[in-house]
Every structure is written in structure tokens, then in C-alpha cells.
Amino acid sequence: MASLLNIGWFSTGRDEAARQLLQAVWQSISSGEIKAHIGFVFSNREPGEAEESDLFFKLVRSYDLPLICLSHRKFREENRAKDWRLQYDREVIARTEKLSPDLGVLAGYMLIVGEAMCRRYNMINLHPAPPGGPVGTWQEVMRQLIENKAERGGAMMHLVTPELDRGPAVSYCLFSLRGKPFDRYWQEDDRDMLFKLIRRHELAREFPLIISTLKAFGEKQINIRDGRVTDGGGNPIAGYDLTAAVDRAVKAEQK
């Protein structure tokens, strides 16, 4: 019997969305949809730092998952060297590598991951644009899509690299920015409504994309080898198109 994908879950746990994402993935694992287990949860906050992260830690413990915490704020105060971030990442690796994650998932992890961790782990992160699309915060992405009069929006999971948002696409989903309900607001040049609509469509696809991506990893339809994304046969790919699976999930949620 093939071994289950061992996931390392990295999250600051700063808000309700962080808890909801962990809940959604946990439920998909428990139901057998995702052939994986979560080997540990790591947070760059510690108990008592923030009410929201404490609620996140409570959820983690309710699932009986190993929880590893290392406050980056305390670490920075205690290690005032210029390279404290490098030292921090090395300490994160020291605390997590014995659990041997096959894949690290950044799930609301609010620190930029440095080169040391990128070299040590295969890590993926969500970006609210299709491959080759705008970079930056989600707000900047929405504005650039409108400014460019883009015909497609989407979201992707990408390999984490030291260059922010520039890692190769691992998986993605697309949706059209033409037709109903978009055309009216393009014609009226109503950028506020376009901003809200594009974000609403993208946000509805984030959890389904993450779940579908982890499912594909668990079924070995996607692999990461030597910094390259490959299909199940070991052939390099420019991202795995999960549009159909994500659309089905979105439609099911809307019923």
C-alpha cells in the first residue's frame, strides 16, 4: 500500500479564514478525498500572542495534530543580528525536519520564506491570479486585471521560492471575465464593481483549488522533483489545470 502524503502545515493562524481552511482540508482528509495526513502544524506565533491565533491553536489541538510554535517577534527581539530571519528559518527547520514532510503548505503564513527553507522543503502557496498573471497582494492583482482589461482571472498554487510570487505554477484554475455578470461593468467602466466581482469569483475558488491540489498530490498526479513540477509520469508541466474540478466544487457549494 502506498504511503500517505505527509503534509507540513504552516500558518500564522491570524484569522477565521486560517481556521476554516484547516477545517476544510482536515475534513477532506478524514473523508478519504485527500490521501494524506498532516504531520505537523507550525506557527510563527505562540499561545497568548493573539486571540485569533489562540483559537487556531485550539482547533489544531482538537484534531490531535502536533503543534510547533516559534514566535518570530520574540525571536527577533532576542536575536538582534541583521540575519535574524535566516537564523529564524534555520531554527524552524531544526524543529520540523525530523517530522519529514513531503510537502509544506503555506496556509495564511504571514512571513516571507527564506532561501534556506525553500532549499530544504518543497513548499506551495496560493496566489490569486492565473499563471503569468499579475503579482502582488490580492488587491493589487484585482486592480491590474482591471487595468489590463484581462479576459481571464483565476488562482494558482505555486512553488515557494525566495523570489516572492515568482515560483513555478504547480496547479491553477481559470474563469472568464467576459459574459454575465462582467460585461455590463466593463461597458460602464465601473471599476469598483469589477473589483468586487473578480475578487468574489476568485475567492470562491481558493479552498477548492487547495483541496484539489492536495488531492492530486496524494494521488501522485503532481510531483515536485529538483525544483520542477511534473505530472504523474515524471514529465515537466507548466502547472496542472484543475479548472474543471474547481468549477464542479464551486457549483456544488452554490446549490
Shape, principal axes of CA atoms: globular
Strand content: 15-25%
Largest sheet: spatial strand order? 3-2-1-4-5-6-7-10
Mean pLDDT: 94
Q: Share of helix among residues? A: 40-55%
| Overall tally of domains | 2
The Cα radius of gyration reads 19 Å
Low-confidence stretches: none
- What is the succession of H and E elements? EHEHEHHEHEHEEHHEEEH
Describe this structure in words.
With 255 residues, the chain is of the alpha/beta class. It folds into two domains: 1-121, 3-Layer(aba) Sandwich (Rossmann fold), CATH 3.40.50.170; 126-255, no CATH class. Helices cover 43% and strands 20% of the residues. It contains nine helices and ten strands. The chain has helices at residues 16-30, 51-62, 72-78, 84-96, 115-120, 138-147, 182-187, 191-218, 243-254; strands spanning 5-10, 36-43, 67-69, 103-106, 123-127, 152-159, 169-176, 222-225, 228-231, 240-241. The chain has an eight-stranded mixed β-sheet with strand order 3-2-1-4-5-6-7-10, with helices on both faces. The chain has a two-stranded antiparallel ribbon with strand order 8-9. Strand 1, helix 1 (16-30) and strand 2 (36-43) form a beta-alpha-beta unit. Helix 1 (16-30) runs parallel beside helix 2 (51-62) and helix 8 (191-218) crosses helix 9. The longest helix is centred in the last third of the chain and has 28 residues, at 191-218.
Helices and strands, with pairings:
Blueprint: E1 5-10, H1 16-30, E2 36-43, H2 51-62, E3 67-69, H3 72-78, H4 84-96, E4 103-106, H5 115-120, E5 123-127, H6 138-147, E6 152-159, E7 169-176, H7 182-187, H8 191-218, E8 222-225, E9 228-231, E10 240-241, H9 243-254
Parallel strand pairs: 1-2, 1-4, 2-3, 4-5, 7-10
Antiparallel strand pairs: 5-6, 6-7, 8-9
Helix pairs in contact: 1-2, 6-8, 8-9
